[in-house]
Amino acid sequence: MEGPLQTSIHVCHENAQWMSKLPEKLWDTPLFNLSLPGSHDTMTYCLDKNSAVSGNESKLVKFLNKCMPCIVRPIIMKWSITQVLTVTEQLEAGVRYLDFRIAHKSSDPSTNLYFVHMVYTTVIVQDILWEVLKWLETHPQEVVILACRNFDGLTKKLHCHLITCIKQIFQCKLCPRNVVPTLRTMWQRGYQVIVSYEEDLEVLKHCELWPAIPYWWGNKTTTHALIQFLELMKQMGRPETFFVAGINLTENLRYILVHPFGSLKTMTLRSLPCLKIWVRKQYPGPQKECINIIAGDFIGNDDFVRDVIELNTKINPQLDCPSKGSGPKNISFSAF
To answer: In Å, how far from its chain's centre is CA 331?
Structure first.
């Protein structure tokens, strides 16, 4: 059942350095066995209402936007924005997985790359990478995962340009994929950035790039259906390394027509009470039904980030994560 609409937004600055505050017993646990908060479609807080529709969108959407821009464009914006906090505010709030959907405008002769979700952003990728670096330099014990995805309109030359930018900006902070990324190892070697790249051929060429991180996307319009999907995925078993459980709802044309005055924000905020209960029941760890990264929309609302971070209090490195039916007796954790 959906909860009442919640509209408050608060950034908990106490989470800005939460990794550095984890107990020493977790310093040798791989990051893919910890619980990490993430933001889905990280950069949609700065979508450009005047930009062209993304090349990935359907011909119908493009046609309607061209014929009735005054009607269609506001609808596109209402259902495209998934975050309101800036990337620095998200990091400050405790988010450690950033979902970067990267694209090149077909009409742009330059090598400028943008973020995209139906429409393009007002900022370019390079500027945001510098912004992330600036934040990391003042938080030397925090680690951020940058998931570079989508790549709409990117040619081989543009992939080369993007990877060169990533290497030049983060330099020795980039963690190579042959390293087991524990906090102790990352701190000792000065690594702070893990870049996953959704283009296998490019990953093979560069040791600084990690393979694409699987994202459990439910593509559901209701909280109940989304939780059912996530539970089914858990039963099938988690991947061995990084993966994301997406707690983001997804609209479809029917849903939009039935909710003409709605938006992705109202859809999301009503789902938070039920999703909060689901999140708090999860366990991080290496076992089949454990979670790793949990990513959501409008991460500044509710206590989502704090709840995901606090799941790490359930970890005891000497004990296995509980499997289905074993109950919590196989794991010790502090109350929260």
So the answer is: 28
Residue 253 CA to residue 195 CA, distance in Å, equals 34
258-287 pLDDT per residue, tens = 998 999 999 999 999 999 999 999 999 999
User: Given this model, what pLDDT does residue 328 score?
Assistant: 38
Q: Which residues contact 22 (CB under 8 A, 6 or more apart)?
A: 34, 183, 312
Give, rounded to a whole angstrom, the gap between the first and last alpha carbons of the chain. 25
Q: How far apart are CA 89 and CA 65, in angstroms?
A: 32
> What is the pLDDT averaged over residues 5-19?
70
Token pair in block for residue 29? 């646990």
Distance of CA 85 to the CA centre of its chain: 13
Q: What residues have CB less than 8 Å from 317, skipping those under 6 apart?
A: 25, 26, 28, 29
- Residue 40 among the catalytic residues: yes
Please tell me which residue in 104, 117, 159, 161 is annotated as part of the active site.
Answer: 117
The CATH homologous superfamily for domain 13-316 is: Phosphatidylinositol (PI) phosphodiesterase (3.20.20.190)
Q: Tell me: pLDDT of 209 over 70.
A: yes
Active site residue 224: no
pTM of this structure: 0.90
* Residues in the chain, overall count: 336
The string over 140-160, giving b where at least 16 C-beta atoms fall within 10 Å of a residue's C-beta and e elsewhere, is eebbbbbbbbbbbbbeeebbe
Range with the poorest average pLDDT among 91-105, 198-212, 319-333: 319-333
- With the CA atoms of 161, 48, 218 and 223 taken in that order, what torsion angle do they form, in degrees rounded to the nearest 10? 150
Angle (deg, nearest 10), helices 125-137 and 156-170: 20
Of 40, 104, 159, 161, catalytic: 40
CA angle 133, 216, 211 (to 5 degrees): 50
